[in-house]
Amino acid sequence: MEGTWRWSAVAAVAPVTWGATYYVTGQALPTGSPLWGAVLRAVPAGLVLLALRRRLPAGSWWWRSAVLGTLNTGAFFALVYVAAQLLPTSVAATVMATSPLLLLLLAWPLLGRRPAALPLAGAGLGLAGVALLVGAGTAAPDPRGVLASVTALLMASLGYVLAARWGRDPALVAPDVLSGTAWQLLAGGLALVPAAAVVEGAPPALDAPAVAGFAFVSLVATALAFSCWFAGLARLDPGTVGLLGLLNPLTGVALGTALAGERLGPAQGVGVLLVLAGVLAGQPAAARYARRRPSRSSRTATGSPPNRRPSTSSAPTGDGASGSTPSVPAGASGRSPSTAPRTATPAAADHACGRQAAG
After folding, report:
1. I need a labelling partner for 200 at 20 to 30 A (CA). Which of 112, 172, 334, 350 fits?
2. Domain limits for position 189
């Protein structure tokens, strides 16, 4: 029991910091520089994780890491930056919490993974909650922020689909989760540098609050959060994982109301509850699927010893997009566990606890 509490506390670092990312981005980071903001978040975090796992991608995973990094860190982080500065913290965090629900729906037509009844009902609840949240307030949320959030979720979902397809190829030896995440962070961040220089000019001047803010979103809410999430995920049961994912939107709502003076109307409060109920209905099934023991052939393809559980990641729904990163969406059925993608997609993990996409 003591071990469970300890690892729950370790894993909880991820959804809490992802939920706080929206508040920090909106309050401390410079406006008008989402591309440079994404670079300054992704590259330092990638370097830290790479220092922990000094492994090079093998073969075609060089360009695959670049593609996944561009979608799941470069574009995703930039869009999250925009959403966090245009939307109230509580709204941004709750909208992004629907990441695994969107993955659930997209995996049906794109990957042929039909969801079970309970997760499908959860997806309906979550989408209804978002509709109430963005449409029932006295002041409608900025449509540009809503568009940025939805686009970020779609980017994360596309990255998941690609990872799922590539993960089915037994000839590909995918990198371990931390080193794969490190290379995707570096690839996504560096890919944005030319675009940032052309579109936004020189990097923004940073005052002390901005330096502290970038240190938080990069080193704490990305490098430390991913490390804690993956460590806890390997040691906790699926039900605990699903509950921890709810800390992401709850943190965003708490910070928005307590520190930013945001107020939700009654209908918006109902919307938040519907999103939480929907995520809770879907996440345990996703986590349970992700933690199933793969076939012997799958473990051999990934280089994992036959008697040891391979590394997998289930992204939180939040800052990022979460969904699940190398796992399947909540409630997916009818597939062998060996077909799950075997590489990390940070977006689905950033904004995946429920990825949640990292915030």
Report:
1. 350
2. 2-301+309-350
Q: How far is CA 358 from its chain centroid?
A: 4
Task: Identify the residue with better confidence: 161 or 22.
Answer: 22
Residue 303: Cβ within 10 Å count: 13
Residue type, 151: T
Tell me which long-range contacts 297-304 makes (C-beta under 8 A, separation of at least 24). 297/170, 297/338, 298/170, 298/337, 298/338, 298/342, 301/170, 301/171, 301/172, 301/173, 301/342, 302/173, 302/174, 302/342, 303/173
pTM: 0.75
Is residue 358 domain-resident? Answer: no
Residue type at position 330: A
Residue 136's pLDDT band (boundaries 50, 70, 90)?
Answer: low
Measured CA distances, 118 to 156, 179, 324 (Å) = 23, 34, 17
How far is it, in rounded angstroms, from Cα 352 to Cα 359?
9
Burial class (CB in 10 A: 0-12, 13-18, 19+), 304: middle
Question: pLDDT per residue over 162-182, tens digit each?
Answer: 877 776 666 666 667 788 889
What are the start-end ranges of the E strands in 124-224?
Answer: none
Give 41-83 pLDDT, tens digit per residue.
999 999 999 998 888 887 788 888 899 899 888 999 999 999 9
Number of domains comprising the chain: 1
* Burial (CB count <10 Å: 0-12, 13-18, 19+), residue 32: exposed
Q: How far apart are CA 27 and CA 38, in angstroms?
A: 16
Rg of the chain in Å (alpha carbons): 18
Distance CA 263, CA 249 (A): 15
Amino acid at 99: S
Angle value at C-alpha 216, between 214 and 221, nearest 5 degrees: 115
Q: What percent of the chain has pLDDT over 90?
A: 30
